[in-house]
Amino acid sequence: xxxxxxxxxxxxxxxxxxxxxxxxxxxxxxxxxxxxxxxxxxxxxxxxxxxxxxxxxxxxxxxxxxxxxxxxxxxxxxxxxxxxxxxxxxxxxxxxxxxxxxxxxxxxxxxxxxxxxxxxxxxxxxxxxxxxxxxxxxxxxxxxxxxxxxxxxxxxxxxxxxxxxxxxxxxxxxxxxxxxxxxxxxxxxxxxxxxxxxxxxxxxxxxxxxxxxxxxxxxxxxxxxxxxxxxxxxxxx
Length: 237
Description:
Blueprint: H1 11-37, H2 39-42, H3 49-73, H4 77-108, H5 116-119, H6 121-139, H7 144-156, H8 160-164, H9 169-198, H10 203-223, H11 226-236
Helix pairs in contact: 1-3, 1-9, 3-4, 4-6, 6-7, 6-10, 7-10, 9-10
């Protein structure tokens, strides 16, 4: 994550990114407290090594996201660039470990949603959209206005799993449409704030938001098809 010193130069920009990072931390902790972060207090079946690795890698990405915003906010851009190299490696791990975890969960039938092979489209969609946004952000690190927005969207795009596990009855009852809807609400909130402040919709936010929401619609359309069933069966076979 290579945001330079111009990336968050105004107080309003600082508030947007810092508040977004804090919201991400709260959502992730609320969603996974019972099953991961505070599992010792809540009990339940022991986690496999793969699930522990997945949780660690995802947590590391969130920590780096928060760290990078803090480094830019305090003017430590040289360290920020060095940490950006590590962030690229962690992003690759998020994708690789995420794919293996999703396929393994579907194979074992332990997914939280619809039938495992149908549900598999949801996490695989996340690990497809995430690297596209991260890659766009890294490629445009010299264009700080594009870079910072793509990196923010990449992190917001993977909140669905945490939102789905927040222990509130109305969330559980809403199912996938609500899980996606609440994810989109976080994204739209950030985009709206930025758009009002700058009096225009930034292309990075416009195209990134279109990619995320379009991928959600595509997953609903594809997941129940015979073609997806055959593909998912091949992946998990």
